[in-house]
Amino acid sequence: MTQQTTQHKIDYIIVGQGICGTLLSYFLKREEKNILVVDEPKPYSASKVASGVINPITGRRLVRSWMIEDVMPFAANVYKQLEAELKTSFITQNNILDFHPTAQMQIAFDERLPQESAYLKEVQDNLQWQQFFNYEFGIGEINPCWLININQLLEKWRVLLQQENELFETKTAVDELINKYPTAIIIFCDGVDGINNSYFSKLPYAKNKGEALIVSIPGLPRNNIYKSGISIVPWKDDLWWVGSSYEWNFDDELPTESFRIKMENQLNQFLKIPFQIVDHIASVRPSNIERRPFVGIHPSHSNIGILNGMGTKGCSLAPYFANQLAQYLVHQKPIDPLADVCRFRKILSS
Ligand SMILES: Cc1cc2nc3c(=O)[nH]c(=O)nc-3n(C[C@H](O)[C@H](O)[C@H](O)COP(=O)(O)OP(=O)(O)OC[C@H]3O[C@@H](n4cnc5c(N)ncnc54)[C@H](O)[C@@H]3O)c2cc1C
Prior knowledge:
Layout: H1 3-7, E1 12-15, H2 19-30, E2 35-38, H3 46-49, E3 53-54, E4 57-58, E5 63-64, H4 68-86, E6 91-93, E7 95-99, H5 103-112, E8 120-122, E9 139-142, E10 146-148, H6 150-163, E11 167-168, H7 174-180, E12 185-188, E13 205-216, E14 224-228, E15 230-234, E16 240-243, H8 257-270, E17 276-288, E18 294-297, E19 304-308, H9 314-331, H10 345-349
Parallel strand pairs: 1-2, 1-12, 2-11, 7-14, 12-19
Antiparallel strand pairs: 3-10, 4-5, 6-10, 7-9, 8-9, 13-16, 13-17, 14-15, 15-16, 18-19
The protein binds flavin-adenine dinucleotide.
Flavin-adenine dinucleotide is lined by residues 15-21, 38-40, 42, 45-47, 49-53, 171-172, 189-193, 210, 212, 243-244, 283, 285-286, 308, 310-316.
């Protein structure tokens, strides 16, 4: 650990620098708090493997994602502020072109259009995509959607933390931290590792594995996200992210051959232009049974807190709830009761 971090009085220690730890450290620094981020650099954390899409519409029934009217505009603004601060670019508006895989899906989309006109649109010129894709049942558009290059954000933020002596790269043992910084508040943003965190292991986590192929598809226009059962999403270095899976039962966190074969077959069916697989990645989402995040201070330990449980929606939920947590810590403003970890007071205190 550097000289400076040991000499400063640390107000908050943030364990983990995924999307949650990054955003929470950003908001606490904006409040001029002294922070220390402790992160074990893992090449395949959920944030590093995520495609980075903020999609306001969820699932086959095409319903609005939870709190999307609040969280999406808030997230887009925060990411743009961070872009300006870090002098880099990592957020773009990339709408989803939804190539209906079946006639039923086309009917379902058309039926939802009038009810959900804020986010669902018709694509007028259906034929222009025929040079790239095989499709029979028309195209809908989900608009606006945002795409976050999370790896770029995480890397740039990490450099800033390093420059300001606010990063400690290691896997941390909690008791050691408490002994070393007895007056600091420790907030766990430890993603799926939180399942083994003795303070919060009783929370209703449900690990969910996801895989993706990284693919080169020369010539495919990069201003959209393409969806037809699979999602094809612009990725770094002119590559594409293709996925994903949602596995509740799995042996390990590694990429599987069965996923690669399945995706390759689907790409062969959907794409008319050549592609080449260059990588295959996998990670585990910190999901939970309630599908609501865990935000706040432990009901029995006033120096221990959490920002976790973002499931499939880290990009949209993390900015909003990191800000709520920072406002709670610094100004005692309330946390949304649906997200406040104190809703689990009974099991956490037992
Ligand atoms: C395939 C896939 C696709 C996805 N696509 C999207 C998407 O398009 N849009 C979206 O919004 N979400 C998506 N997600 C979900 C998103 O990735 C998660 O919601 C989010 O990344 C969770 O972030 P986190 O900061 O909680 O955890 P993580 O990203 O896992 O970060 C936790 C960090 O804490 C560190 N850590 C843990 N324990 C310790 C310790 N004891 N000491 C030190 N460091 C520690 C880890 O090393 C890690 O760096 C996807 C996920 C997957 C797997």
